[in-house]
Amino acid sequence: MTRSASRLPQIPDLLVGLVDERLSGARCTGRAPWFDAELDDETAEDRSERLTWARAQCARCPVAASCRTAVSEIDHPTGVWAGHTHGLPGRPTTKDSA
Fold first, then answer.
1. d(CA 38, CA 64)
2. Which three-class secondary structure state does DSSP give residue 71?
3. Which of 32, 73, 87, 92 could be a cystine partner for 37, CB 3.0 to 4.6 Å?
């Protein structure tokens, strides 16, 4: 099937480079905001509950080992990766902080 004949939406070439095939099947797929470091207008209590939930998802994720590898390759990760929270204010954002 050619690209023009397909009725499926095409992923722009710019976005294809952002997809890490090692993370295919991750429990966070389609739930990105739940794994973000911070959300606008969120209380500290709400953030704590959300991040606790996100870390629990990571604990049951079938690609957790690949996620640990992927996050080690990122200079300044933010959010929950492989069960660790990165990029919150007042916390170090280096790879060693996990």
1. 22
2. helix
3. 87
Q: What is the pTM of this model?
A: 0.70
Reference 58, options 85, 75, 82; nearest CA is: 82
66-94 exposure pattern, b = at least 16 Cβ within 10 A, e = fewer: bbeebbeeeeebebbbbbebbbeeeeeee
8 A C-beta contact, residue 64 and residue 58 = yes
CA 39, distance to chain mean position in Å, is 14
Is pLDDT above 50 for 1?
no
The helix (H) or strand (E) run that includes residue 79 is strand 79-81
